[in-house]
Amino acid sequence: MHPPLQLLYLSHASIAEADLSLADVEAAVERAFRAKAEGNATLPPKAGFRPTAASAFFLPMPAALHTPPVAGIKWVTVGHENLSLGLPSVAALVVLNDLETGLPTAVLDGSWITAVRTAAASAIAARRLARKGSRRIGFIACGLQARSNFAALKAIFPLEEALLYSRRRETAATFAAELAAAGLRARVVTEPREAVTGMDIVVTSVPPEPGPHRFLDPDWLSPGAFATLVDLGRSWRPAGFERLDRIVTDDRTQTAANAKASGLPYGGPFHAEIGEIIVGAAPPRAHDEERIVFLHPGIALADLALAHEIRERAIARDLGVWLPL
Q1: Which of 57, 106, 165, 307 is 20 to 30 A away from residue 289, measured at CA?
Q2: Strands 246-249 and 321-324: what pairing?
Q3: Three-state SS string across 182-238, please?
């Protein structure tokens, strides 16, 4: 007789108790990029939709890793007016399934996973594409993704100085105080160009709505700069991308389709995918003068790899709630 069918539910609190380190997260995300580059993963297209002009935006993101044998989907929603209501603008759940039987094995809150896997992707790319010894970092927008990216990048580079720009100066000031407490010289600037030009690393994480878009110029990037476009490039003007030395993404097909569907400024061509650089099929930074951009909308493989790691850790630590199917 088969044992009762169950799945594990892991809330945000349970995921925090699993206590994955930045190194754990980065390793899981890098395994996902490597699996894709080596043909050991399946990544169907995303299919985002907004039912009405007043509704949230819904984005189902399916994927499968062949090893470990896990399939699943991240279900993401973006509520454009949520911040004004005191609600998070982005919400996500991750559902894991056994690859062979198709049965669901876990449901996880996706907010922490989304934040840290995105920052881990930036860090994985920066290890290979940013200049060694990068010390100056600029932030365009100063929310959750800015903080997550800072934590991941500070673990790699000897960051000393940060310039911050946000459409809400008080938001930038709060983040600047946090960076100062972490030992950086941090300053809020009034013009976005100040947080781009002269920086070794630039992080842009401008939210979809509201606010101005396409106000950054790729030509502002100084020789040797590395920029991670967490905001899918929505804050950048399309003119100038062709003058960059290298533009890298996480998945050419999905990034191009996403840009076309959402009207984003840049959808290709790309010099490489990050997985190709990881496995040696494409080169890392060639010299200190290259201006390199990493534009990564995010692939569900990274979410699944991290969710699987969290599930295994949670089972070992007896975390979460088992639910009957």
Answers
A1: 165
A2: unpaired
A3: CCCEEEECCCHHHHCCCCCEEEECCCCCCCCCCCECHHHCCCCCEEEECCCCCCECC
Q: Token digits for 123?
A: 């860090």
Mark whether 52 and 96 lie in a shared domain. yes
Name the nearest CA neighbour of 265 among 204, 181, 308, 201.
204
Read off the CATH number of the domain in which 223 is found: 3.40.50.720
Residue 87 sits in the same domain as residue 205: no
Average of pLDDT values for 292-296? Answer: 97
Contact assessment for residue 65 and residue 28, using Cβ atoms and an 8 Å cutoff: no
Q: Give the pTM.
A: 0.93
| Res. 80: pLDDT tops 60 | yes
pLDDT in tens, 94-143: 999 999 999 999 999 999 999 999 999 999 999 999 999 999 999 999 99
